[in-house]
Amino acid sequence: MYIVIGASSFIGVYTVNELINNGLKVLATGRNEKFKDYYESLGVEYVTLDITKKETFDLLPSENVDGVVLLAGLLPANANVNLDEEENASDYIVTNTLGTLNVLEYCQKNKINKIISTTSYADVFSSWKKNKAINDEQPRGYSLAGDHAAYVISKNAASDLLEYYNHQHGMENMIFRLPPVYGVGPHGSLFINGKWTKSGLQIFIENAIEGKEIKIFGDRELSRDIVYVKDVARAFRLGLESNKAKGLYNMTSGNAVTLKEQVEVIIDVFSEENNKSTVIYDESTKNNTPSYLFNMEKAKEDFNFVPEYADYKRMMLDYKKELETGVYTEIFN
């Protein structure tokens, strides 16, 4: 049996579905009680768990657990905090770092040898460059300012703890370095430094559906390595089933897509043939981040992971299909 901690999260829902659709037994946990009925309808037991509270781990099984996927945590996208007015660094440390330590202690106590968790691609922010793929072993270099800084610090510390348990206690923990993950879910809007803001992808798709003009700000050739949630979920399954993989892995598509290419694909997929959106370029506004690209060879070598949705059009076609079914939209509403 596998435990997915944070199964009420966006990636958690897809991961549980990936595991059970491949015949694996799963126990799901989360803090949101509304997911209990959903998971029980799938035949999946759901336990209310808060990773910051050690006593809640007594609700989890003490035997017959083969591995844990740890997705519970605090993200800037969910933090209603304006750093110009208040500070929430302690919230990140308590949830992401000490919460990970609580999971590690539960696993060691019950002889569970593998945890797969995630970290931020911004841990190597200083190495981001156009068309230069970053290896898994790239030394850290990250910003110490901005609404992601304390988050990245907390995830770096959590990753170090997972690696410490590998070396000190012989575990086989894995850490997936994730960029923003695309897929139908609850994140059409998110917090940016405490301000509730509609995501760029959501704006592009809505405008394409309505045939409205789409504006690209800054460098149209700025490129991003985008990963699809179904690829991430499959990577969790392959990682859990592997008997040799451990340590840090880039978890992206390994494919750089420019802003111009993204918008062209979105218009092609979402606009009606007789009502296509037009694109306007505004180069007067600078982009907030540089281009980035990651190397995916290590994941392929260690646990046979190759992204199925590295092609951006294929990703968007599946995104549209899932959006039209309404299944995932209903889950997160």
Automatic annotation (TrEMBL):
InterPro entries: Epimerase_deHydtase, Lipid_A_modif_metabolic_enz, NAD(P)-bd_dom_sf. This is NAD(P)-dependent oxidoreductase. It comes from the Bacteria. Residues 3-250 form the NAD-dependent epimerase/dehydratase domain.
